[in-house]
User: Fold this.
Amino acid sequence: MSKIWIFDLDDTLHDASSKIFPRINQSMTAYVSQKLNISNDAAHEIRDQYWKVYGATLKGLMEIHGVDPKEFLLKTHDAYELSKFVKQSHALKNTLKKLRGKKIVFTNAPLHYAIAIIKSLNIEKYFSAIYSIESTKYNPKPSLIAFRKILRHLGKKPYQCTMVEDDLANLKTAYKIGMKTILVSRQNKKTIFVNKRITKITQLTQSS
Assistant:
């Protein structure tokens, strides 16, 4: 039975925290400020509230304000600009090449952004599919709904899949439904829902 590798994108396959996330964060706050006609500080507070209640800024904007998700995602994820900050890695390509089994990307990011980042990394040939926030009807990880939708798309059972992620909350859902879990992080916190821990993605072939 072939293994299915499910990869998160940002901060798993590449570094998004240093330059990309701050710009997306700034764009989201600016969008909320303009859309709701409020100050940047108020927009930041609302985003924080929506994150706690809905798990994402977008979900709150859709539920409370009827915001068009496509408009929001296009205006807050400038793929052309953001992909300029991506650094290619031969080690990453070699790691993906060595991994046996089907590989997909499962991200909370929009599809146009995910495609641009993967192309910038020059790793698109290693993945058979990209599942984005649109694929889950805007239900972000760690939502159980999101995971179930992806599994239905794949036609696979959880035990056939290995989730590779930097986010513990997402791995917790994956583990609960029966997936194998691999955390990509420098954190040393021990948790029962992490089967393996690596500090960088290129260590994956050493631990699989």
In short: The radius of gyration is 17 Å. Residues 20-36 form the longest helix (17 residues). Residues 185 and 199 are 5 Å apart (CA to CA). The mean pLDDT is 94.
